[in-house]
Amino acid sequence: MAERPPRRLLVVEDEGNLGQTLSERLTRAGHEVVWARSVAAAREELARQRFDLALLDIGLGDGSGLSLGELIHAKCPGTAIIFLTAMGDPAHRIKGLEIGAEDYVVKPFHFQELLLRIENGLRRARFCESGLDRVRVGRADVSFQKHEATVDGQTTRLGAREAALLKLLVERRGAVVSRDVILDEVWSRDEYPTPRTVDNFILKLRRLVERVPDEPTVIRSVRGIGYQLDAASVKEA
Questions:
Q1: Per-residue DSSP letters for the chain?
Q2: pLDDT per position as a tens digit, 52-97
Q3: Where are the domain boundaries for CATH 3.40.50.2300 in the chain?
Q4: What is the pTM (predicted TM-score) of this model?
Q5: Superfamily covering domain 8-129
Q6: Is 134-236 a CATH 3.40.630.10 domain?
């Protein structure tokens, strides 16, 4: 079997020592790394080449990493995003996840933890890029690669985990998928999710695909086990 080529990462960090350290250690971990020291430099790199994952500092000297993340999500939907910041403000975390970020890591951090989160983000991004892309689920037209769902002409961004969860259910439509399987496939045990985490994400998806979210017929609950996506509700584009 051919060896998988290294994944290309964009590190956007204006603090010199940290940027250099991250670049060197991620390169030693087997990734191809491009380090941009500003929003402007990052924009140039994004116009020049495709990246598998972007690691973005939020507080940059010439702009916001959050705004850069929005640009990446809109223009490069196949690029996973992880925000890196010294700010522990919950509002920043919520905004980052709304943009569609894979994760949000607060400085100071342990490098091995960051590396695990990067690997998890890359795995989810590969899952959403592979196989089936465009599909209709219930009342929503979904593009997994773009992380978008369109309902009645209104397009909604899907977060990384929302897209991965919906794709898992689509690929296993008609079968009951347990919460444990969902946690293993969409999250990872080092992220400390709970079965309630899955339930909350299912509620978000039901608001998109169901005619009446409180009376679901597309994504059904199977008591004590997990969820089942009605096979008849899925139409491949």
A1: -PPPPPPEEEEE---HHHHHHHHHHHHHTT-EEEEESSHHHHHHHHHH---SEEEEESEETTEEHHHHHHHHHHH-TTSEEEEEES---HHHHHHHHHHT-SEEEESS--HHHHHHHHHHHHHHHHHHHSS--EEEETTEEEETTTTEEEETTEEEEPPHHHHHHHHHHHHTTTSEEEHHHHHHHHS-GGG---HHHHHHHHHHHHHHH-SSTTS-SSEEEETTTEEEE-GGGEEE-
A2: 999 999 888 898 888 998 888 878 877 888 888 776 666 666 666 6
A3: 8-129
A4: 0.68
A5: Response regulator (3.40.50.2300)
A6: no
